[in-house]
Amino acid sequence: MYHSSNPPPDSTYIRPAHRGKHKIFIGMAPGVGKTYRMLEEGHRLRQEGIDVVLGLLETHNRQETAQRAEGLEVVPRQQINCSDIILSEMDTDAVLARQPQLVLIDELAHTNVPGSQREKRYQDVEVVLAAGIDVYSTVNIQHLESLNDLVARITGVVVRERVPDRLLEEADQVVVIDVTPETLEERLKDGKIYALEKVDQSLQNFFQRRNLIALRELALREVADNIEEDALEQASNGTKADAPFCSIHERVLVCVSTYPNAIQLIRRGARIAGYMHAPFYCLFVDDPDRFLTKAESLHIETCERLCKEFGGEFIRVTNYDKVKAIAQIAKSYYITQIVIGESQRSLWRLMLRGSLTHQLLKSLKNIDIHIIATEKRT
Q1: Which domains are delineated in the chain?
Q2: What global pTM score does this model have?
Q3: Angle at 180 (CA atoms; ends 164, 191), nearest 5 degrees
Q4: N or C: which end of the chain has fewer CB within 10 A?
C-alpha cells in the first residue's frame, strides 16, 4: 500500500498517476475513539518508515487525543477571513504541495467556512485522493445521507452535516470503532468527550441509552452490508472463485408447486423473511414434459402475485430435475433458508426415489431447510 522511501524535496517530483487509498474510521457517536485509533495507526506507519502528516485534527479539547497526536508532523491550517472573523480550515493546497504518502484528516462530514475553496471537507479529501495521496479519515454513522431521516426519528436530532453514501462504497477500507453504550456513557461522565457542564444535557438528549443502542446497530449493519456487497461483486466477477461465498445476511427461498399448499408456504416464508429482515424469493420449477392445466396456471399466477405483494421476487425456471434447479437457484441467489412443504407422494414412491427434502439435504450445504406441515388431503 505504501512505499518506504520519502519523496525527494525538490519541486520536480511527480507522484504516480493513481488514486490514493481511502480508509474510513466510523463510529456510532462522538467519543467512541475514531480519531484516537486513526492517530495510533498514523504513528505505527510512521515508525515503519511511511511519510505521514496530520492534515486536519479536531481534538475538541480532549486531552488524550491531543497527547496521541504529539510527534506527528502537522500541515498548518489555512486562515480564512469570514465577516471580519479569522477562521481556520485544512489547507488542501499545502497538503498537495507537501506530497506525503499518507494524510490523516478528521471529521469527514465537516462543512467548511464560507470563502473556502470547497464547501465540504470530504470534497477536499477527494482532491487529495485524486492526487495519489492516501487518506485516513473519520466519520459518525449519523452523517450518512441515506440514514438522515432514520437518525432523526431515532434521536429527534436532524443532522445538518452529511456525506454521500458513495464515500463508504468507494473507500478501500471501512473500520468500525465499536464500544458498548455503557462504556461511552462512562467516558461522557468522566469528561472525556465534552466538558463536565454539558454531560447531563448530553445524557438526556443524543446520548440516551436507547439512541446509542440504535446508532451502534446502524454502524455495525452498514459496514456489514458494505462487506457483503463487495463479496457479492467479487464472487460474480469470479475474483474469488476458489473460496465459497459466505453470506452475512439471511436470504429466504420458498419452493412452490401446483399443490394448493403453495399459498400457505409463501405466507410462512414471508413471515420467516420478515423475522430475519431477509430478502424473499419464490421459485417454481416447470417440467418440460408437462403442460399446466388452466387451473394450475392460474394457481401459479396467484402464487406470483402473492409473492410480490410480500415484497418478494418470483423466479420461474424449466428443468427436468427439480432438485438440481433448486440447488442452482440457491447458489445463484446466495440463499440461506429454504421453505418447502411436506411431500405429497405416496409412501411407495418415497421408498423408490426418496423425498425432495432428502435429495435437497444431500445436494445443499450450509442451508437450513424448513419443512412446513400441511393438512392431509383425503
Answers
A1: 22-237 (3.40.50.300), 252-372 (3.40.50.620)
A2: 0.62
A3: 90
A4: C
